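Hi team, as promised in this morning's meeting, here are the two structures we talked about. I've kept the exact order from the run log so nobody has to guess. The first one is mostly here for context; it's the second one we should focus on when we meet again. Sequence first, then the predicted structure tokens.
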Amino acid sequence: MKNPLPFLAMHFYVQCMVAPAFTMYTLISGKTSAYHLVQHLCEVLNVQFVKTKDSAKLESGSVFLCNHRSWADFFVDQTICGGGAYLSRMMVWIGTPVTSLWAWLSHSTWFFNRKPGIDRSAFGKWINSQFDERPHPGLIAYPEGTRNQKDEPLKLKSGVLQYAYEFNRPVQCVITTNKDTVVNEKAAKLNRNVICVTHISKPLYPKDFADSKEFVVSARELFVKTWETAYNTKPEHGDLYSPPYGLKEPQYDEVPIKRRLWILRMIIIFAFIYYMYQKRKVSLVSV
């Protein structure tokens, strides 16, 4: 194993410096931007973005089907997709509490409780309600269902595709190379100056298909073709660019769910009052 210190230092930087700084800014200003946080991380590592010459433009409000390679996915893909949102289980709060707090506050991750026997129709309606809270560029999904560092894609799970079909959401495949070179958490490694090649497919529109089965089959085929195009394109044969491609330039927006902002502000205020009360109590006892 190579020296793990750069990897650990980056993890510390994100959890203890970047995420708290963005959270504090949001608490004070009431504004937020998931895109600018992840873009900053890409700038720190000097990730170089190249798109294939025949990449389509991203379409707002779509479901973006991305390849799941490593932890780098969570800032590289979100940069490419203009600050699109993620779906995530509540359990991730245990491993990454600070970034999870930021993601919850900024509404850049939609947290849910994963349990057996979930009502897919109700879950789909809940996802749609999250879209309504803020006009996100789209939803970033990893339909392979697990991290896959093989040379070919896994068969896609049908859940998110069924959702897209039922609620008439376009899907686009967004495949990016070398994310596991940027960060490889299994080996505790990270690298700077990595060139990531992205191929973006044209949208698939559910209304163009007779049924969900036909839609799912087409999405799976498109995912494979998009994968092959991305991984078979050399960086010098693509175009260097600044994401996102086709979406409006991300801005700092008002916090979409303001009650979350005020809940957190009140918790901090009461915690500070309690701390001062305890401190005063101790000082009186010592006198």
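And here is the second protein, the one for discussion:
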Amino acid sequence: MKVLAEVGEVDLFTVTTDTRPEDQLAAPADVALGRHMILRTAGAPGGLARLMAWSRDDRPRELARAGREWAGAEAELRNWAHPPYDLIWYEHTLALHAVGNTLAALAPDAAIVVDLDNLNDRLMRYRRRVPPLGSSATGLVGTLPRWAASRVLDLVDERRWRRWQHEVASAATIVTVCSDLDRRWLGVLNCRVVPNCYEPAGPVERVRSFDVERPVFCFVGLLDYAPNADAATWLARKVFPLVRARHPGSELHLVGRYGPVVEKLAGAEGVKLCGRVADMGEVLRRVDVVVVPLRYGGGTRLKVLEGFAWKVPVVSTTIGCEGLEVTDGQQLLIGDTKHDLADACSRIVSDSGLREGLVGRAYRHYEDRFGGELVRGEICRVAREAISSRLRGERS
């Protein structure tokens, strides 16, 4: 958004279910927008309503339930938009699905870029392979029927998402993904890679030395997002107890907005639910290890880049660092079972030389591949290519 605003006038239309005050949802002060509208809508319908909507058409569940989430968006956008536009940049496929026809009618000559962010067909595939965790209330047996049913739906949605992503690519001038891995998976000619970028808001300074007696482990993310909630639960219930057995003073901080799934972890030994924080830098200055325990997901992980940028050692699953072109033992440690991930955490605590080497190589990797200037240049190139292609009457 900031980059686009630097090369042309930008109108921003935001649809959200976030209930925070509007000034907290406004664009940052250093982003020079032309106009900005924030439309608040109701959340998604309940599980049965979602399932009924999904069963009546051939869209994935997330798109089938979009009607309520985006209720009124087309009418508001039709009244608010101020065409002509040279470029329309959609954040996620849901935005194109919800208001694409309206904007196509308002600005038929505009180039279209769609940021796919996550390739949801691959996310569905990964999730189908993840075994159930069970819950403290029902146990594994009580969880199995629902888990099995959801995996059947995931199999259907994997195919639906694959088809829909290709339809999006056909409708767009350019689609963007965040890694070469995603570009190869998607397999369309008009796909460009715009890596994820993270820039620390302040100076990268540690406010405490690594505490080998009371190390603080941290998992950061939107913890009401299903892959993150699953990861937090697995980490707190299955992995962290193994870490605590070796390092009894350890703490696990779960940072980010959370819902009922993660709320159940309150009171677990050594686990602290930190909720939403205003300044991520203040968190990362004070923790010893960033853990990214994702068992499924899509895109690339800002969680890992945050750790790299703040010079905090990172431990991750393979899925957690996918697409970042990192190597186990070079920029971070990787473990895919509860025992391997716990072992990796313990190695970080016990070996200062290992910590220092990982942090140094990780920071250089971050600067070389995910620094702000590099990513800003890619965004500019995509925008200009899309507009030029549209003027020539062709896709990229």
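Starting points for discussion:
Residues 216-370 form a domain with the Rossmann fold fold (CATH 3.40.50.2000).
The chain has a mean pLDDT of 90.
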